[in-house]
Fold:
Amino acid sequence: MEQYTVTGMTCAACQARVEKAVGKVAGVESCSVSLLTNSMGVTGTASAAEIIKAVTDAGYGASLKGGGKDSGRRNSSLSRLAEQEEALKDHETPKLRKRLIVSLIFLLILMYFSMGHMMLHLPVPSFFHENPIALGLLQLLLAAIVMVINQKFFISGYKSLFHGSPNMDTLIALGSSAAFGYSTVMLFAMTGAQLSGDPELVHQYMMEFYFESAAMILTLITVGKMLEAYSKGKTTNALKSLMRMAPKTANVIRDGEEITVSVDDVSKGDVFVVRPGETIPVDGRVMEGMSAVNEAALTGESLPVDKATGDEVSSGTLNQSGFLKCEATRVGEDTTLSQIIQMVSDAAATKAPVARLADKISGVFVPVVIGIAVVTIIVWLLIGRTAGFALARGICVLVVSCPCALGLATPVAIMVGNGVGARNGILFKNAEALQETGNVRIVALDKTGTITAGEPRVTDLVPVEGVSETELLELAASLEQKSEHPLAGAILQYAGENGLSGADISDFQALPGNGLTATRNGSVLSGGNESFIRTKADVPEKIHAQGQKLAEEGKTPLFFAKDKKLLGIIAVADTMKEDSAEAIKQLQNMGIHVVMLTGDNERTAQAVGRAAGVNEVIAGVRPDGKESVIRKLSEFGKVAMVGDGINDAPALTRADIGIAIGAGTDVAIDAADVVLMKSSLLDVAASIRLSRRTYRNIVENLFWALIYNVLLIPAAAGVYSGLGITMNPMLGAAAMSLSSFCVCMNALRLNLVKVYDTKRDKKRRNTIQVPKIVSTEMNETERGTMMEKTMKIEGMMCGHCEARVKKTLEALEQVEEALVSHESGTAVVKLNGEIDNDVLKKAVEDQDYQVLGIE
Structure:
């Protein structure tokens, strides 16, 4: 998407006109114009010159943001951010404030001589008593001064009228011009009456003056415009604060010396240093040092994250304690912060589906209002009312109508909602995602890395009678310290957390498919699965039963023995994240059906599903099979798929809303509609909660904008005059000036939304009932089929062995996907091309597993 800055737009009619003009350009696929940010996003093959010409021909101005694609990425990063921040600054409010002050000075003088003198009998120089024409000329002069001060309304209004695209300024200009022109005619008529010596007719003509209305309309509209500009400026605060976080300089090491350079001059591979209290300038990897880094700017998480050698750090985050020496890995527009800013900016340039109705109305609103004003004047004249009364009704219709409120109803809410999300590490890629996320009825969760942590942890210690947990853990740590198996790492980590370390061992042997043996101080240590340990020691029935129970819970029981005596069991599992169960409960409380998808076996999947509290578990599903499940679920309502954005890409794309969780620095996940910076499922519930509140705010804004015009235009036209209700043009202008301000202020209420607060959660009415899609009912087409080979493999003991074999096989170019089971000892390999069996066999056996055969 190319983004442009558009100038000259004043209301929703202008926005619609620009979209229509650009949409006609050959090669333009889509065009979205934002009245809020005065920006335009265009996708397609049309050149920038053609697009700018179309906007110019429509009577507006346009320029390409950041100089376009050809202005070097590296050199434009900082300047682009500065340009965007400058574009978002509130330049209008100070200008409008000055204009308003000067207008008010002359308006107050005008009001004194018109209404103050005639209605309140305030004193005026005797000269005006003797010469009412002079009083009329003074009012004309003062009104003309106010009109000149506010000439922008007339220039914009009549220019757009001549281009065939009247806007809100056209209504103001016509209304003010009509009042001024009619009053001028009455002044000339009064002059004639004065010359003919008819004082009663002179007084009658003077009562027909609307000079104060002409000036008051402009002044009140300026008040409204100033309030609108101020509140619009507030809606972009979140985006501006992100831009301000972008560091300007970096301390890099070059030729052995530390120098300070512009962040644009940092290249990938440069070494930079960050001291306590400094902001990290670009994305990098820690080479030396330890520190606590505050990543609230990216994730919304206030607690600092410890960083040490090898850890990733991100631009815009704050180094709080230690000295860090880092290598730059992402610079310029590729940094995490730059991608977040770009994503929020792009989202603001798109439109929510609910805005389409407002756009259609805005496109015809001004011409219809002008038509209503003309008809109003004609009808009142035909009824027999005076020209002054009829003209007042017509002017009132022109000035009370407000297309601006319609045009701002959606974008201001989208901008504020996006800002709230960004502050909490929730990024919506476009306005449609922000609107539709709240409408999902089914959430499908990937198990590994989404519900679970994605890494093995020790969950249970079951020592036999007479053996302490410390003794069991210390022996296991000694035996596992030379093993490269993922489960060994889990045991060693747990032992370290408990202050234990393994003793030196000798004669270490890893027996694929069986277990480990070693010698320590003359004693033989053994560890592995139950079948292996039975060859080394007796396993009591009670311990066997406990092992079975642990296996049924989705855990891997590891048995340990010393000198042919069983010491106990240590269970290891991919543990569930602390907040997963709570998040799933929150989703269910919002009326959402939660489904867990996994390639694991049924027993493990069901155990995790029960612990997490999901409504349904679908096991044994391959990545391409997940896409088929999402398609089937979509038959029952809108579906959101939550995954890591890599292996889950097909399912994320198929779902109505794809949510990538735990993106970290990988913000630009193409397959996702919503990107969550943290790995917490609570953010899934928070994104739905924020979407619902934002949509409700949009509906409130649209309702106000529509009901305002529906009620006040008839009142302005005098439809309710039979009930004694009439509207003065000045009152109409006051009402119009406040309408857009009210819409903007209502949108700003979204800043008060607490996205993690569950108190206002409500189940949607008519919550759908999703029938169980049990994995056994899914055919091979739904699971995904390709050319397949089945490998018989010996030596796999647990789910982590499965993952190791799976990763090895899928690294081969011809392997599309591998479904591995340690229980059946098989790997079903899906191929996208021919591959020799020896290649498959070698890949697996290089990982210390034995291939028994390939079919």
